[in-house]
Amino acid sequence: MIVRHVPREGAAGYLQPIEAAGYHIDRIDVASPDFADVDLCDPELLIMMGGPMGVYETDVHPWISMQIEKLAARLAADRPTLGVCLGSQMIAAALGAPVYPGGHMELGFAPVSVNRAGAESPLRHIVDVPVLHWHSDTFDLPDNVELLASTGKYAHQAFRRGSNVLALQFHAEMGEDPRFEDWLTHFWADLDVAQQCGIALREDHDLHGPIAVAAGRAMIGEWLAGIDA
């Protein structure tokens, strides 16, 4: 099951390895009336994508607390779970770590620094590969997880817990999806905050995007193959 926090942030390039691994993909939007009745422990695989909201904005988005509670039960059962950007922050929160504004916007294509543990994980596929970053929130590292990657601006870019839980702050799924134009249109204020030029970002997307997606697909494919079902 893919949980979408906004329709323009889907699994994108990750769909290919998910389908190749034999998973039937269902989608649920948090805005759907049905979301309140969804048991997040049920799906064989849960994937939570990004969104512009903060995990701490529970007064504006009441579904956040409900999602974290449901997610905590899934993680307690060690069910296979992938979180991307906001999804990674949701995993951190469900594991008891605080999530908060990081103080600056990280936006654009750049590689992450994969540490030794990361180099021995599926993240080995993205070493030295510029991937898309688009966030300004961060989190403390939860207990009993393994940090896999960092950047100069944000130390906690990826972590895992065992074989079944993977959290990625960056967007290695984006680089070929036409919804990237929606990001530029709907999140234009982020470009101003990050002092980024939309034209230059499009050029970077065309240059780095296909390579990033290929690496991201290899990463997710290897992670799925290593799940302890």
Describe this structure in words.
By secondary structure, the chain is of the alpha/beta class. Strands 2-1-3-4-10-9-8-6 form an 8-stranded mixed sheet. The chain has helices at 15-20, 63-76, 86-94, 116-119, 180-186, 188-194, 198-225, and strands at 2-4, 27-29, 46-48, 81-84, 99-110, 113-114, 131-139, 146-150, 158-161, 165-168. The model has no long low-confidence stretch (mean pLDDT 94). It is built from 7 helices and 10 strands. Helix 2 packs across helix 3 (86-94).
List keywords for this structure.
229 residues, alpha/beta, eight-stranded mixed β-sheet, two-stranded antiparallel ribbon, GATASE, Class_I_gatase-like, ChyE-like, GMP synthase
Summarize the structure.
The protein is of the alpha/beta class. The protein has helices at residues 15-20, 63-76, 86-94, 116-119, 180-186, 188-194, 198-225, and strands spanning 2-4, 27-29, 46-48, 81-84, 99-110, 113-114, 131-139, 146-150, 158-161, 165-168. Helix content is 33%, strand content 21%.
Which value, in Å, is the CA radius of gyration? 16 Å
Indicate the mean pLDDT. Answer: 94
SS-based structural class?
alpha/beta
* Poorly predicted residue ranges: none
Q: Percent of residues in beta strands? A: 15-25%
Shape: globular
How far the N terminus sits from the C terminus, by CA atoms, comes to: 16 Å
Main sheet strand line-up? 2-1-3-4-10-9-8-6
Seen as an oligomer or otherwise, the chain set is: single chain
Outline the biggest β-sheet.
Answer: 8 strands, mixed
Helical segment count: 7
Q: What is the tally of beta strands?
A: 10
- Helix-strand pattern, N to C? EHEEHEHEEHEEEEHHH
